[in-house]
Every structure is written in C-alpha cells, then in structure tokens.
Amino acid sequence: MMTTKWSLPVMLIWVIPAVTVSCCRHPPSVWCSSPEIAKECQVTKQCSSFYSGEVNANPVNFTVYLEYLCPDCKQFMAGELYKAYTKLSSIMNLGLVPYGNARESKVGSKWKFKCQHGEKECLGNIIETCSMYVLPNISVYFPFIHCMEASYESPKESSKKCAKSLQIDLAPILECAESIVGNQLEHQMALKTAALKPAHTYVPWVTLNGVHTEDIQKQAESDLVKLICDTYKGPKPSACTESEKARKCWKL
Ligand SMILES: *[C@@H]1O[C@H](CO)[C@@H](O)[C@H](O)[C@H]1NC(C)=O
Ligand SMILES: *[C@@H]1O[C@H](CO)[C@@H](O)[C@H](O)[C@H]1NC(C)=O
User: Fold this and answer.
1) Does one domain contain both 47 and 121?
2) Is residue 238 in a domain?
3) How far is the CA of 249 from the centre of ligand 1 (A)?
4) Domain end marker among 12, 31, 53
5) Ligand 2 site: residues with CB under 6 angstroms?
6) More confidently predicted of 249 and 167
C-alpha cells in the first residue's frame, strides 16, 4: 500500500536533518561575528559581508571617573572593570579620570585640591594620574592603578607596595606627583570631570562612547563585559561569545 511504502523514507527526510544539524547556541546579535558562528546558525550567506575583512570597527571608549578612597570605586575597579579590561582590552579604550568629587582653586601659579576623603585621597588621585603620564602604556599603568585601588592604606604605602610587586620604578611617579607637572595634570583631570554632561552626581561615574545614562551605569556595574561586547560593532572576540554559549538554543 502506498502509505506504508512511503512512510520510512519520509521519516528519514525529517529525522536526519534534525539530528545532524547542530544547535545554534548564539543569540542573533552575534550571528555575524565570525564565519564559524554564522555557519552554525545557518546564516553564512546573510552574514558574508560582515566578516569578510571589511569590518574595521572602532574600539569602544569607556571612561571611569573615580577617586582614590571611595569604596564603590574600589569595588568597581576590582570587579567589573578588572574583568572587562583583562578580557576585552583589544576592543576597548579605557580612560581613567582620578579626581571624582574633589574641588580645586587657584593659589598663585598652582592648583589647590580639596578632596572628599581628605589629603590622602588627593595624593592618591595625583599618584594615579602621574602613573598614566610616566608609564609607557595602559598595560603597565592599569595593573598599577588596579593594585592601588585594592588598598585603603595611605597612597604613599600602597604605591610603594604596588610598584614593588609590579616591578615598576616609583621614583619618577612620585617626583611627578610632588611637582608642578603633577599639579597641572591633576588640573586636567578636574577639567575633564567638570566637562561631564550631565554633570556627575556620584563616583564611580562611567561614560560609554562619551555618553552617560543611568541605564549605562547600571549595566556597567552589573555586567561590563556584556555592555562592551554589545556596543562593539566589529567581529566579537571569543570572550564575548563564551558567556553566551551553551546557555540557550536560539530559534532559527
Ligand atoms: C607597553 O609597554 C611595555 C613596557 O614598555 C611593553 O612591553 C608592551 O609591549 C607595551 N604594550 C603595548 C600594547 O604597547
Ligand atoms: C573615542 O575616542 C576617540 C579618541 O578620543 C575619538 O576620536 C572617537 O571619536 C571616540 N569614539 C566615539 C564613538 O565616541
């Protein structure tokens, strides 16, 4: 009879693709991020223009306005910021502005800073600022600032310990911090902070590609890796897709 004769091949046609096609384990936002993912999600044709080398996406600008002794700054630095920086430094331009809720006034030719948590905080801010000026690049000064932010000791003590453990020459940094150079550099941090629109009302205060909203702030504090990955327009580095993998099977 026709029905029984056809039932086996018909069944195979339906069953074979279902067992051999692997599950697309990625959300649609990353389907075009690499040829492998596009293939897995069966969108190779649709995505071909995205990963053929034409993508030349700009890194995501992410800037943190902070001050040396603020507990939330320390927590953000040790947690979300550290994670994002170590995983995504290739797709983000991280800016650090150590000034926070300080005030400044001009006395003679120098700026006088008044900090929320006192003199120690002012010195901590200037040492961090000078480290960015003295050290060759962010891969050297980020670990130094990260280490200083992990401490509640006086900045003299923390900078000494951190420089020692990271094998950084502290002398030029302290020299900068005590000189007119450090004073001027810190004034630049004051100007950057004062230029924020909207003006900051707490620290740490973050901007994503120059923009601050409460939503961006919340996302940065809860999952900065995701925020940077979602904002980046180029092919996603593996750190971006790792966390999404194996969680859901997306409908094709
Ligand atoms: C940063 O500076 C260090 C020390 O001079 C150097 O080894 C490293 O290659 C530099 N990294 C970048 C990304 O330029
Ligand atoms: C990121 O910062 C760079 C350097 O300051 C700037 O040229 C660029 O326009 C910024 N990009 C965005 C999207 O804000």
Assistant:
1) no
2) no
3) 41
4) 53
5) 58, 61, 93, 209-210
6) 167
In this structure, what token pair is assigned to residue 163? 């420089």
Which pair of structure tokens corresponds to residue 56? 């030349």
User: What is the rounded average pLDDT for all residues in the chain?
Assistant: 88
Residue 68 and residue 192 in one domain: yes
Q: Does residue 21 surpass a pLDDT of 90?
A: no
Residue nearest to atom 5 of ligand 1 (CA): 136
To test ligand 1's pocket by mutation, which of 139, 166, 167 has the most ligand atoms within 8 angstroms of CB? 139
Q: Is the CB of 137 under 6 A from ligand 1?
A: yes
Number of domains in the chain: 2
- Note the pLDDT tens digit of each residue in 92-106: 999 999 999 999 999
CA 129 to centroid of chain Cα atoms:
18
Q: How far apart are the CA of 166 and the centre of ligand 1, in A?
A: 14
Cα-based distances in Å from 40 to 4, 32, 217, 249 = 35, 11, 34, 11
Cα of 200 from ligand 2 centre, angstroms: 20
Q: What is the pLDDT of residues 36-87, one digit of tens each?
A: 788 888 887 777 666 554 457 999 999 999 999 999 999 999 999 999 999 9
Beta carbons of 174 and 135 less than 8 angstroms apart = no
Q: Are 190 and 111 in contact (CB under 8 A)?
A: yes
Written as six digits, the tokens of 172 are 């030029």
